[in-house]
Amino acid sequence: MATSPAVGSVAPDFTLRGTSENGERDYTLSAERGHSVVLAFYPGDNTAVCTAQLCSYQAGLSSFTDLNATVWGLSVQDMASHEKFAAQRGLTFPLLADPDKSVHREYGVLLPVRGAKRSVFVVDADGVVAWRHVSNIGLTYKGVEEIAQALRELSGAS
User: Fold this and answer.
1) Domain that includes residue 143, residue range
2) pLDDT tens readout for residues 101-129
3) How many domains does the chain have?
4) Nearest alpha-carbon partner for 56 in 20, 96, 91
5) Is there a catalytic annotation at residue 55?
6) With CB atoms counted within 10 Å of each terminal CB, which end of the chain scores lower, N or C?
7) Mean pLDDT, range 47-54, rounded to an integer
8) Cβ-proximal residues to 127 (8 Å cutoff; 6+ apart), any chain
9) Are 4 and 108 spatial neighbours (Cβ–Cβ below 8 Å)?
10) Is 2 inside any structural domain?
11) Which residues contact 66 (CB under 8 A, 6 or more apart)?
12) CA 146, CA 4: separation in Å to the nearest integer?
């Protein structure tokens, strides 16, 4: 299994299909240079902890946007699953589909049988991993305030 990119290393670039307010579209990490991106890898749509995690990020979305950051959720489910999940839960940030698991593999968050490790990477405006948390168990998640604090530290505001 690949190891996760270290803090201070260039984040592996990728393009994935994801949800948007206007249907589906492609999202490319390197196209987001100029602002931070929070990559939230989660095990699965419509599971208890994942639903709580992503709904909390939706509720705190302004905390991220106020810090010039966007949030992307990534899992191995397909677009049909993501679209249904986003509609049911009112998620307005993109949910990216990685059904071939290539991005999960590249970020070192793929589990052999269970899918993905619950993980969050903050990629800064230059495309560098500025903060990360990779969980082996995944029953808890990093909350909005902890991630927002990492973003504030990036911008020099604490």
Assistant:
1) 33-155
2) 999 999 999 987 767 899 999 999 999 99
3) 1
4) 91
5) no
6) C
7) 93
8) 10, 11, 13, 29, 30, 33
9) yes
10) no
11) none
12) 20
> Is residue 3 included in any domain, yes or no?
no
Identify each DSSP E strand in 66-145 by its residue range: 69-75, 95-97, 110-111, 115-116, 119-123, 129-134
The tens digit of pLDDT for each residue in 131-154 reads: 999 987 667 788 999 999 999 998
Instruction: Identify any residues that bridge with 133 across adjacent strands, giving them in sequence order.
Output: 120
**In angstroms, rounded to a whole number, what is the distance separating the alpha carbons of residues 64 and 47?**
24
Q: What is the pTM of this model?
A: 0.94
Instruction: Look at residue 9 and tell me if it is in a domain.
Output: no
Q: Which residue has the tokens 């946007």?
A: 65
Cα 145 from Cα 50, distance rounded (Å): 17
Q: How many CB atoms sit inside 10 A of residue 23's CB?
A: 8
| CATH number of the domain to which 108 belongs | 3.40.30.10
Q: Which of 29, 39, 50, 120 is catalytic?
A: 50
Instruction: Answer whether residue 26 is part of any domain.
Output: no
Rounded to the nearest 5 degrees, what angle is found at the Cα of 98, between the Cα atoms of 93 and 99? 130
Q: Indicate the SS3 state at residue 101.
A: coil
